[in-house]
Automatic annotation (TrEMBL):
Any one Gene Ontology cellular component term annotated for this protein: cytoplasm
Entry's transmembrane regions: none
Domain HPr: from-to ranges: 160-246
Region (Disordered): 119-160
UniProt name for this protein: Phosphocarrier protein HPr
Native source species: Prauserella rugosa
Catalytic activity from the UniProt record: dihydroxyacetone + phosphoenolpyruvate = dihydroxyacetone phosphate + pyruvate
Biased composition annotated in UniProt, kind: Low complexity: 130-155
GO BP annotation list: glycerol catabolic process; phosphoenolpyruvate-dependent sugar phosphotransferase system
């Protein structure tokens, strides 16, 4: 794996492993490592475990560290300070689960460490997402998901592009499809906006997309501007057409 790595520091081994599992699903090519609990399985944080996770997660592009409670922050900072180059890692005060997902998606898209860290911090600015995600996930009954999406042809105007897409996958823009959409356009020079129900979201922010609460049967409007606007709209339309690969 290459790119920015992530380390999840928690007092609970199960909690750290769970966050890593979710983040890895959103960003399969990112090194996400857990450092949770004490070596014997007790609740607590272990300096050696954090140090080992830092070393495993760093492929040369640096590491972003997230933690659950104050003493976990202290342990993480101690481990970072003892690295050969402490500047290769940064310990963030950001929401653990939401921050890890946002950071993982940014890292998957090739962002540098500063951008990955900012993505994690920005998760705190979307408090409505937790309820939205829960509501969307609750519609997933484990049945076979719907096929693709119906999309109106993309149009262009003044260097921009636009398309209307009716979501046909079973759970709409819940966490995984939102992450896939964000990743699909991360490398493009385009400002992408997605609208639904009078609300507009940043197409390159997974939590902004999830806040739309767009479900199966809803129509979203994708608009883009910039040098690669048409490519951005085309990628999103094709991704929706594949049912977000679910």
């Amino acid at each position: 794996m290459s790119g920015v790595g992530l380390v999840i520091v928690s007092h609970s081994g199960k909690l750290a492993d769970g966050v890593v599992e979710v983040a890895a699903q959103m960003a399969p090519d990112v090194a996400v490592r857990a450092a949770g609990g004490l070596p014997g399985g007790e609740i607590g944080t272990d300096y050696e475990s954090v140090l080992a996770a830092l070393e495993q997660a760093d492929s040369g592009a640096g590491v972003v560290v997230l933690y659950d409670l104050g003493s976990a922050q202290m342990t993480a900072e101690m481990a970072v300070e003892t690295l050969a180059d402490p500047d290769t890692a940064v310990v963030l005060d950001a929401p653990l689960v939401e921050g890890a997902i946002a950071a993982a998606v940014a890292a998957q898209g090739g962002s540098d460490r500063s951008a990955v860290a900012e993505a994690a911090r920005s998760a705190a600015r979307h408090p409505e997402v937790a309820d939205t995600a829960d509501a969307a996930e609750s519609t997933d009954t484990g049945t076979e998901e719907g096929t693709a999406a119906a999309a109106a042809p993309a149009g262009t105007s003044g260097g921009g592009a636009r398309a209307e897409i009716t979501l046909e996958n079973e759970v709409g823009l819940h966490a995984r499809p939102a992450a896939l959409l964000t990743r699909s356009i991360a490398d493009l020079d385009a400002d992408v906006r997605i609208s639904h129900g009078g609300t507009e979201a940043d197409g390159k922010s997974v939590f902004s997309l999830m806040s739309l609460a767009a479900r199966k049967g809803d129509t979203i409007v994708v608009s883009a501007s910039g040098p690669q606007a048409e490519e951005a709209v085309q990628r999103i339309t094709e991704l929706a057409g594949r049912g977000f690969d679910e």
